[in-house]
Write a structure and sequence with these properties.
The protein has nine helices and three strands, in the order ααααααββαβαα. It is α+β, with helices and mostly antiparallel strands and about 200 residues long. The protein has two domains: about 35-90; about 100-200, Phosphatidylinositol Transfer Protein Sec14p (3-Layer(aba) Sandwich). Strands 1-2-3 form a three-stranded mixed β-sheet, sandwiched between helices. α6 (about 100-110) packs across α7. The two termini are about 25 Å apart. One of its GO terms (cellular component) is membrane.
Length: about 200
Amino acid sequence: TEVVFQSPSLFRPDLTDICARGLPSDATVTARMVSKDDVITIRSWLSKQAHLPQTIDDGLLRRFVHCCDGSLERTKTALELFFCLRADAPEFFKDRDPAMPRVQNVFNLIDLLPLPKVTPEGYRCFLYRLADPDPDKFHFVDYVKTFFMVGDTRIRSETELVAGEVPIFDMTGYTLRHLTRLPLPALRKYMQYTQEAHPV
């Protein structure tokens, strides 16, 4: 069954316009080609790692090699971190039903919008912004759980390997009260995973 993540707010006229326009289509993508030998080498290494899943498809392995600029040693480290950090953060990576009320609530409170076209340099842009700025409704763990669910869906559905990703954070509506609702242990896990293990 295909799971489609949709936010009701994505259909607001301003976001629909952004999504339709996107960015220039005549981009010169500088993404590195990943060879079959790279994938075979990583899969051979993976077969000796009993603590890691053995059912990773070639597309995901290619993405990891690509995101690590072709360095197979960095790819191995990133794969280790990908699975270990996820296991260490059940608050983000367990109970991930897109229909659960907490997740649906997040889709009503924030906009997560990957733009459909890449930049002239070959980068994909992803827009984040608050749809509802009320700090009392800001629940960081729920936001991150939903963000990673969308991210995992994109990893599976976006087969084109681009040069990289540019996050665009629209800070309109954020206040110091939002900062007081950031649990530091969860923030630390979020930062480490996105910087060291998230294959985008």
